[in-house]
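Bench notes, bay 3.
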Amino acid sequence: MITVVDYGVANLGSMLNMLKKIGAKARSVSTPQEIASAESIILPGVGAFDHGVNALKERGLDEAIKERVVEDEIPILGVCLGMQLLCKGSDEGDLAGLGLIDAHCRHFNLDDGSSLKIPHMGWNVLIRKKSSDILNNLDSNSRFYFVHSYHMVCKNEMDVVAKSDYGGEFTAIVQQKNIIGVQFHPEKSHRFGMQLLRNFVEI
């Protein structure tokens, strides 16, 4: 059973529909008590960093998630803002993140005169940096859908599974043992996202 965290900062419909499409059992939850019985967690999210942190804290979900993920070592997949909330903090806000990954989120710093726009929005491929089960059956042509203005910078590059390129390489997938984050939206990435979610379900 996949537990999708509902903390008011994401439309869960597309994620739950995609999980259903791949045959995974999933439920949305919004209380610490429900997190306490989770077998694996997906933390989605869109919007501003501090708003996401506050939304978790107001519901008591931050400590509940950390307890299950750190102490009980269940798998967690952070998606988009959910990935960034795994960090210690972000240039976008003043509050501390969950601190599950030793990293900080930085704003895209594009070269003067660049024709690229912020946010980074659209399809992009991955540049694999190390092997991980989350990338099983995905090749170099696999494309994923991104929408973001900030990106994760890890203190330890060994935590980076894959990068993508937008005016320079940035972290697209991060993993530290049972803790995984993806900057893109697998639920909006068609068959490639379906495969990635299958991989997470099987972890």
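Next record in the batch:
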Amino acid sequence: MTAFKTTARRGPARRASSGIVLIEALVGILIFALGVLGIVGLQAAMVKAQSSSKYRGDAAYLASGILGAMWSDDIANNLAKYTTAGCAAYAPCNDWKNKVAEALPGGSTAITVDAANNVTVTVGWTVPDEGTHSYSTSGSLQP
């Protein structure tokens, strides 16, 4: 009986496949890293959109608030005190103006009243890297 001797094959086929697992691992890590970077970018975009939405909502709330304050005040005697020029000297208007400055970044206000008691309230704010935004509302207040 003859004994067969088996030998391990170490030819060119084995050398060509060495290191493939390392390359697969590196490609997997690269794909995972790109996914994480995408999620971080998406989160940054969501925070920016949420902040922008909050500022618009705050501006609308503040503009409506001053119109309500004007409406409940003595319109015949105090309406002219709410204009941009007279606002600093009239406590309710000045408090509102300070509230706008605190609530919005770079908050600014403008109130105009025409002869027919039509009121236009404009609230502005400035966000870095986005520029200047404004919200304007108007109403007619009759004594």
